[in-house]
Every structure is written in structure tokens, then in C-alpha cells.
Amino acid sequence: MTLPAVVSRFVRLYVLSPETIVFGVLLLIVYNSVNHVRPLRKLVQRARVSLQLRFRGQNYNASNDSTDFDDTSDVAADKDRASWELKRDNAAVFAIQGRRQHMEDRFNVVTDLEHTGASIYGIFDGHGGEFAADFVEKTMFKSIMIRLLRGAPGETQNISSILTEEVLEVDRQLLAIARSNMEISGTTALLALVKGTVLTVANVGDSRGVICDKHGKMIPLSFDHKPHQMKERKRIQQAGGFVSFNGVWRVAGVLATSRALGDLPLKDKRFVTAEPDILTFDLRDMEPQFMILATDGLWDCFSSEEAVDYIKERLSEPHFGAKSLVMQAYYRGSVDNITVMVVNFQKKRASHVRKWSQ
């Protein structure tokens, strides 16, 4: 028997046999399931969350392609990208996944909200998964905007109360979903709301905001919530928890921030709280040049003063220096996701001066 005949006989008997074909198909199914089980699980989870919120009369869209109120964060819409950027009015954002396996940062910007005269800027740093940051960014921006839009033109609203109430309410919603879906992720939240001549900043966690005043000096807009701080450590210990050092100081040896939204296991034990710190600033006194909001991927490599000095030299760049600052943090060795937002007050200086003088 010739060699071609032997090869043909072998192919017919073994390669193209029904048993071999069935085995190959089963092997392909197993391989596909193993490599795609995570996306499939997340798809099912998002579907369950969507149904739960619809049942409660709410709407949560996991994609940013079509959201109410002109949602601008596009991180969740394209997970294959390594960087994300946004420039809207006088705000610019640049974000990179960096050296992490997944991008868990989120951001959003809304400027000059209809008749309210308000602008909202937000940074969210997720941990333990991206769901919490994704959910909080979308839900919180919508809920705050609804509260502002309900106010009559010219009506004085207590912005500090609105921000506090909405942060706690969104955390309550997130925990309700987490309990039914075994979701353990969490997120920081840093919100800056400008209305008229007042800047109000709400902070939960260790994302940080700073501002550069008219003299070029750095003024902190928030203070990091770290477990080793006396106030935070005392609260954790009174709840029966502990703080230990594991690379950095962590709540129960796990979480590197003492306040966050989500984090169901630690939240149920009251080791972690979502209570925000609220600070207000008079823009007429500060006459700020710019504001920086950033996740801790930046602050691991830059001090607040260094970041302000860095942006002062690059405010004329297309992203107001945000992209340069992000990349410099990466080159300095940041191992986290890095998101930087720069709000350039000088771009609207003429209109601001007219408003402040009224």
C-alpha cells in the first residue's frame, strides 16, 4: 500500500470519524466556556441588576452609549482600550488602565446644567471589581441632576445636604443589589459641584481634589480617608474591627481606604462607612486658576503641591495638562489605574468675573 493510501485510510478512520468530531466539538465548547465564563457571568449579573432596578422603578444602563442627561464617561463602553479621554467645555479628563489587569476607574462631567447654572465633576475609583464604580457613577450623577432640576429657578438649595443624601442613598441601593448578587466590589467617590460662586466638594475615600488659587498656591479640596488616621482607626475599632499593615494600612487587612460605597462584607460589619466629608469654597475669594480631581493612582506618585506645580506649566496643553500628568505618574511607577481631571477656570475667566461681580 502506498504512503498516500495509508494517510488517506488513517484520516478516514481516525481524524474524520464521528467519535473524533464529537470529541473535538466538546473540547471546543469546554475551551470556550473556560475562557469566556467571566464575561458571561458579568453579562448575566448586569441583566439581573437591570431587571431588579426596573422592578423598583429605576433605570440603570450598563453601557454609556445611550444614557439620559448626556452621560459622558466612556470607560465602561470599551473595555479593550488602554486609555480614555474627554474634553468638555472647561474640563478635560485623561485616564489609563496602567499596570492593572482591569480598568476600575470611572469619571463624569456635566457643565451648565440647564437652568440650574450648575456644573458637576466626578471621579470614582473602584476596587474588587468594576461594578460598584460603574453603578455609582451613573446612578449618582443622574440622581444629583434630578435634585437640581427639581429646584425652581432662583431657588436656594442646600447643596451640601443634597450631596450627602444622594451619596448615602446610592450606597444603600448598591448594597441592596450586592446582597442579592453576591457583589463585593466598592468604590471611592469624589464630587465637585459648582453653582454660582460656590464650590461644594463631597469626598468618600482616597481620591483627592486640589485647587490652584489666584496666587498659584495649592489649596486642598478633600482629605484622604485612610485607615491609620486616628479618627478613622477609632471608628473602626469601636465597630469591632482592626487596622493592620499589609503593604499599606488596611481595614481588617483588606481595604486601603476607610470610607467607600459598596464593600458589602465590610459595610455590614460597619468597619467601612459611606458618610461623605463636605467642604465648601467661595470662588470669589479664591479666584482659582484650575482644579484637579484624581484617583490615588496619581497621588501615589505626586504630592498635592507637585501636581499643582506640574499643571501650572501645562495648562495651555490640549488636555490642560491632565494627559501629561497621568503619563508622568505612570513613568514614575504608579501600579494603579490613573485618572486625572483638570477644570480650567481661566478658560471662563471673563464670564466668571461678570457673574461674581453681580
Keywords:
alpha+beta, 7-stranded antiparallel beta sheet, 11 helices, 40% helix, metal ion binding
Topology:
Elements: H1 3-15, H2 18-55, E1 83-88, E2 91-96, E3 105-113, E4 118-127, H3 131-150, H4 159-181, E5 186-187, E6 189-195, E7 198-204, E8 208-212, E9 218-220, H5 230-238, E10 243-246, E11 248-251, E12 261-262, H6 264-268, E13 277-282, H7 283-286, E14 290-294, H8 296-299, H9 304-312, H10 322-331, E15 338-344, H11 349-356
Antiparallel strand pairs: 1-2, 2-15, 3-4, 4-5, 4-6, 5-12, 6-7, 7-13, 8-9, 8-14, 10-11, 14-15
InterPro entries: PP2C (IPR015655), PP2C_BS (IPR000222), PPM-type-like_dom_sf (IPR036457), PPM-type_phosphatase-like_dom (IPR001932)
Pfam families: PP2C
Organism: Batillaria attramentaria
